[in-house]
Design goal:
Order of helices and strands: HHEHEHEEEHEHHHEHHEEEEHHH
Strand content: 15-25%
Number of strands: 11
Shape: elongated
Distance between the termini: 47 Å
Oligomer: single chain
Largest sheet: 7 strands, mixed
Helix content: 40-55%
């Protein structure tokens, strides 16, 4: 029997779908919806906001809007902040005629903890007019807060299944002396970041059984290195040496920790590429060049320590790999919820609460599965299109 025939026999299908959805937190009424939480940990001006912008734009590009799947920002303040950020980028990098475009100080670092809230909404009009949504929260932790638990961000970390560390690639790569390496580690706050990850995130989940968590090491502003095979490998090795090796070493000592580590360099600035850096006593000035359509450098642009160019106005690369894992996690969560419903299908008392008869409730479960199919397909299409393997543990 096809879904349309089943639907005709279930007059209260909207109510049934709503009850199923409320049971698993999809309907966003009275804060019923439990969001999937993602945290970004890095120093100020390391590219967190630019990466959030890239994540949002890339997610939007990879959803099946024709199938009734969309993405929305939950708060007007988040939209205003991202719009302001993109406008700053256009103002800073938009004038390709400038012979010496200075970036220094133009993009302020995050000074307060900020949680970006967005939702992926989905509707299957063939079955119901009800619109459901999966909420997401991305926590942007200011660099100055790495050593203190301000405003409850550690509690948020304990609910974070996906943790992202943006890494300023030029700072990591343009070090050729011991002194420069020491300065780079100071600017990147490598020790503070890793200590927070280990003591407040990995340790917590190692004590929580087999909960699956994922860590993404994400070099940003890495355009200049990704087109050069040798530099590309050097960047990967340095991320391994400075970050991954210590995290994976921790994992080997804690067998209960269900952790996967991913290396995902994201080209967040697209049409702008790093040219060279100049070390000062307590600074690292970064110089950029515009990239013309042929792929070669255009006019130079100068910047100072840890300034990032990003936004929708430039072609971004590899963010799909990060989005694919977020979507895969979301896909697995939905299937897990459906399986829990299937496991209860013989519970006549539980299902009897959802409709007039147990038989109709069983049909309702099949309709509910069909109702969720567009969002399942949209997630699955993305993560299968952009497969990503973790670093071997």
């Amino acid at each position: 029997m096809d879904n349309k025939k089943k639907i005709k026999k279930i007059k209260n299908i909207d109510d049934v779908i709503r009850k199923f959805s409320e049971h698993f937190g999809y309907v966003n009424e009275n804060d019923i919806n439990t969001p999937i939480k993602i945290s970004l940990i890095a120093p100020s001006r390391s590219g967190k906001t630019s990466l959030i912008s890239t994540i949002y734009d890339t997610a939007e590009d990879n959803l099946n809007k024709r199938g009734g799947v969309n993405i929305i920002l939950k708060d007007d303040s988040d939209k205003e902040r991202l719009d302001l950020f993109r406008e700053q980028i256009r103002n800073i990098f938009g004038d390709r005629r400038s012979p010496d475009l200075k970036v220094g100080g133009a993009l302020a670092g995050t000074s307060e903890r900020k949680v970006f809230r967005f939702a992926i909404t989905f509707q299957n009009k063939e079955i119901s007019n009800l619109v459901l949504q999966q909420n997401y929260e991305i926590q942007d932790i200011p660099g100055g807060w790495l050593e203190d638990n301000k405003d409850g961000f550690v509690e948020f970390l304990h609910k974070t299944r996906i943790l992202v560390i943006p890494i300023d690639a030029p700072l990591l790569m343009e070090t050729f002396t011991d002194e420069e390496i020491q300065k780079a580690n100071s600017f990147l706050e490598t020790r503070a970041v890793l200590d927070l990850v280990k003591t407040e995130w990995l340790q917590y989940f190692s004590e929580c059984g087999q909960t699956e968590i994922a860590l993404f090491l994400v070099p940003v502003k890495c355009e200049a290195y990704m087109d050069d095979s040798q530099k590309k490998e050097v960047l990967k090795k340095r991320v391994w040496d400075r970050y991954a090796s210590e995290v994976i070493g921790y994992k080997k000592l804690h067998e209960n920790l269900n952790l996967k580590v991913y290396y995902v360099p994201v080209e967040t600035i697209g049409g702008i590429r790093f040219k060279y850096g100049t070390w000062g006593a307590d600074s690292f000035e970064q110089h950029f060049s515009f990239r013309n359509n042929s792929g070669s450098a255009d006019s130079p642009a100068a910047g100072s320590e840890n300034n990032t160019a990003s936004g929708a106005c430039f072609a971004q690369k590899n963010a799909e790999l990060l989005i694919s894992k977020i979507f895969e996690y979301s896909h697995n969560e939905i299937n897990l919820r459906i399986q829990k419903l299937r496991d209860k299908k013989d519970n006549t008392r539980w299902f009897g609460k959802l409709s007039a008869s147990y038989r109709d409730s069983k049909r309702a479960l099949e309709c509910y599965e069909a109702y969720l199919q567009p969002i399942i397909d949209s997630f699955e299409k993305t993560y299968k299109k952009y497969p990503l393997e973790p670093w071997l543990l």
